Amino acid sequence: MDCQRCHGKMVEEEFSDLKDDSGSLNFRGWRCLLCGEIVDSVILSNRSHRPTPIVSRNRKIMAYH
Ligand SMILES: [Zn+2]
Asked: Ligand 1 center to residue 1 CA distance, Å?
């Protein structure tokens, strides 16, 4: 897997996150060896499920004028 920022080599790692109320939360993710960018499965799913912006609706309204 290549880094989306610098296209460097990324390695799979296991991270610990303390944001969870139940204590530490371990998750698997990818870390870039060059710039240190960290990508986990949650970030990846958020990027793919991003809602479409409302800009298209504004364009329709402007077309009436
Ligand atoms: Zn990178």
From this structure: 11
Q: Is the residue at 2 inside a domain?
A: no
Distance 31 CA to ligand 1 centre (A): 8
Residue 28 DSSP symbol: E
pLDDT tens readout for residues 3-58: 999 999 999 998 776 666 667 677 789 999 999 999 887 666 777 666 665 555 55
Q: Specify if 4 maps to a domain.
A: no
**How many domains, the chain?**
1
Q: Which domain holds residue 42?
A: 10-64
Percent of residues in the chain assigned helix, strand, coil, to nearest 5: 30, 30, 40
